[in-house]
What does this fold into?
Amino acid sequence: MTNTAPQTVPLSVQLVAKTEFDLTTGDLARHFGVAPLTIARWADAGLIPCQRLPARGHRRFRPADVEALARSMAEGPVAA
It folds into this structure.
């Protein structure tokens, strides 16, 4: 019997079926390991662009913007 631990799938692979502005605040929170409110604050501070849905104002994000934020965070601390 082999021990198979769950593997982390890169965000870019997880998002193959996603379209532009299709990621939710929850998707980003899970990816970055932070609370959804943190993602909302980052968006409000302009750290990551988002689109607001008209009915309830929920935020949606593009995979390319998420990956750009992840790269910038890897380079150093993000100033809010």
Summary: Helices lie at 11-14, 25-32, 36-44, 63-75. DSSP finds four helices and three strands in the chain. The CA atoms of residues 12 and 56 lie 27 Å apart. The two ends are 48 Å apart (CA to CA).
